[in-house]
Amino acid sequence: MTPAVQPGPRTLVAGIGNIFLGDDGFGVETVRRLAELELSAHVETADIGVRGVHLAYQLLDGYDTLVLVDATARGEAPGTLYVIEHEAAGPGPEPQAPALDGHRMTPDTVLALLATLCAGTGGEPPRRVLVVGCEPASVEEGIGLSAPVSDAVPRAVRLIEELLRDGEPSPAQTSTAEVAT
After folding, report:
1. What rounded mean pLDDT belongs to the chain?
2. Which residues does residue 128 pair with via DSSP β-bridges, in sequence order?
3. pLDDT tens for residues 139-150?
4. Band of the pLDDT at 169, cuts 50, 70, 90?
5. CB 77 within 8 A of CB 148
6. Residue 23 half-sphere exposure, CB side, CA atoms within 13 Å?
7. Strand 128-134's sheet: what is its strand order?
């Protein structure tokens, strides 16, 4: 009998944001460009947009790593890239169901919903969650990214490719990314 082939670790790169709110469309545009590249067979990309509930349910399919790509305001210059490792909550009481607003689900809300779904289904959340964020210039109504955020998209694509390949940004990338935990 031939042993079953074990699939490699699965990674989902999910673009989050509202393209009708200027720089909030950063994650969607970055993942769109990333999807044009030839990636490992174990890497999937998804334009989630504002469908956070959809993302939580998709994660029940079982991923080892989740990379969320989103506009992330942290007070730096517009176009600054960040790599943030999400710290999973430790063992404790059963998660409370988050208040759901399908159009305003932050990554934290999506992950809280996922924890609730996993508790109810016996599923497993991703072991590692990274956020690749970009400092927005404006999230006011309007279509299109500002110049600094648009310029950051190709850098973000390269950063994500490196994270997928190596798991950590190189020193060259940390000059364009604030690496936070």
Report:
1. 80
2. 65
3. 999 999 999 999
4. very low
5. yes
6. 22
7. 43-49, 11-16, 65-71, 128-134, 81-85, 177-180
Answer yes or no: are the C-beta atoms of 9 and 64 closer than 8 Å: yes
Token digits of residue 86: 């999400």
In sequence order, which residues have a C-beta less than 8 Å from that of residue 172 and are 6 or more positions away? none
| End-to-end Cα distance, the chain | 45
CA-CA distance, 76 to 85, in Å (whole number)?
A: 18
DSSP string, 152-164: HHHHHHHHHHHHH
Single-letter code of the amino acid located at 53: V
Q: Let me know: does 78 contact 37? Beta carbons within 8 Å.
A: no
pTM higher than 0.90 for the full model? no
| Helix, strand or coil, per DSSP, at residue 100 | coil
Distance of CA 56 to CAs 25, 71, 114, 117, Å? 19, 19, 5, 8
Contact indicator for 94, 118 with CB cutoff of 8 Å: no
Q: Is 34 left (phi over 0), alpha (psi -120 to 50) or beta?
A: alpha
How would residue 28 be classed by pLDDT, with cut points 50, 70 and 90? very high
Report which DSSP code applies to 24. Answer: G
* Mean pLDDT, range 77-103, rounded to an integer: 64
